[in-house]
TrEMBL record:
Gene3D superfamilies: 1.20.1050.10, Glutaredoxin. One of its GO terms (cellular component) is mitochondrion. This is Glutathione S-transferase rho. It comes from the Eukaryota. Coiled coil: none annotated. GO terms for molecular function: glutathione transferase activity; maleylacetoacetate isomerase activity.
Amino acid sequence: MAKDMTLLWVTGSPPCWRVMIALEEKNLQGYNQKLLSFDKMEHKSQQVLDINPRGQIPTFKHGDNVINESYAACFYLESQFKSQGTKLIPDGPAEQALMYQRMFEGLTLYEKLSAVVFYEWSVPEGERHESALKRNKEALVTELKLWEGYLQKLGSGSYLAGPSFTLADVVVFPTVGMVFRFGLSPERYPKLGEYHNLLKERPSVKASWPPHWLENPKGQDTLKDI
């Protein structure tokens, strides 16, 4: 079945990583894949545009079905392969409700993170202001404290929606991984650090770990003072 699937991706992109973790959890190894380069603008290539007219990554296709939004692709994989691999949507209403809540809050976390780490990349030089970056950093601190509190409430060794690994972890962990890649202090955010350490040892996460992070484990220090 995985041979009918194609994923076009870039290394270190949380949206791409979400889909790759989901594929691993559903035991769908062996899919067709192509690693692209943002620097070479390969996400705007005709190969991508033929499947994804937005020219964005990930680009995912299963047979004739195209699902390019990363959350949608993860939902699709769980729906189509329910009985295969890890069950990613819990049956219990309380855990399911928390899973959905954290999944979509994860989009806000990614947005707040991007507004800081990609500020210089996304804002033209003449439009950049220290006051704007300062506001973005303050918003990220507020957001990170929320997630620290969520994990504190659940207790040590918990996943985002409770005792089971769910779609919430599939889609949010890549952002958490990126936060620490950019230098967030685990001493300042111990529960997020504990969660990061728990999931980075999970087989699906290890199998899909961004290759350029493996080549250069050090990362950056953009968030060291956050």
